[in-house]
Write a structure and sequence with these properties.
alpha+beta, Elongation Factor Tu (Ef-tu), domain 3, seven-stranded antiparallel β-sheet, 3 helices, 13 strands, 15% helix
Length: 211
């Protein structure tokens, strides 16, 4: 499990592609890998990856085909940067919200605005995922737990406002319009929405009404 509090920015040191598998080596910020072990989990732009090799300030990861299909990690090049977080420890403070490290879909950065002392991202979302997004609700973008500021259901998008500390600790300040964004929706919200949808559908079916 992860908390969505990004702990640093890693850079891609090397990639090695084979059919259905990509080996990725990342360079971590100094100290990030203290007591990190082979077999440990690291969220890389929100995707939970398992450490398969380890050196000072470096780790290797194997990405299977499903991970490559569901994320944009297969498009990374040497020098690219991504948000990283170590797996949560027991009794650790959860400053964000619980995350599984499983990416639900890839969204697109549609607009960047800079009101005074603020940084606003508008994220374009596939329509099928809009029922899980609510103003003041949680969402994880590239592994960062963020609060949704507003939702536009007609345009299938939502906005988040980023404080300077978030920009300092993440890659969001360098994202341009059109950039892909990994999204993990809040699991509690997902369960509630899908339960309500199922119960309403069953009720309408009993009444002989279309769902």
């Amino acid at each position: 499990m992860f908390t969505g509090i990004v702990q640093g920015i890693a850079s891609v040191e090397s990639v090695h592609d084979q059919p259905g598998l990509r080996h990725l080596v990342l360079r971590f910020p100094q100290g990030f890998d203290d007591e990190l072990a082979i077999g440990a989990s690291v969220a890389c732009d929100g995707a939970c990856l398992t450490v398969t090799e380890l050196w000072a300030d470096h780790a290797g990861f194997d990405l299977m085909q499903q991970t490559l299909d569901l994320t944009r990690l297969g498009e990374l090049h040497v020098g690219d940067r991504l948000n990283v977080e170590r797996a949560a420890r027991s009794n650790a403070e959860i400053g964000g919200h619980p995350l599984s490290g499983h990416i639900d879909f890839v969204a697109t950065l549609a607009e960047v605005r800079h009101p005074e002392n603020n940084h606003v991202l508008r994220i374009s979302v596939p329509e099928a995922w809009m029922p899980y997004l609510f103003a003041k609700g949680y969402v994880a973008l590239n592994g960062a737990s963020l609060t949704i500021a507003s939702v536009d259901r007609e345009r299938c998008c939502f906005e988040v406002w980023l404080i300077p500390e978030t920009l300092r600790m993440t890659t969001f300040g360098h994202k341009a319009v059109g950039s892909p964004i990994h999204v993990e929706i809040d699991r509690t919200t997902q369960v509630i929405v899908e339960t309500v949808q199922r119960l309403v559908g069953e009720h309408l079916a009993r009444l002989g009404l279309p769902g």
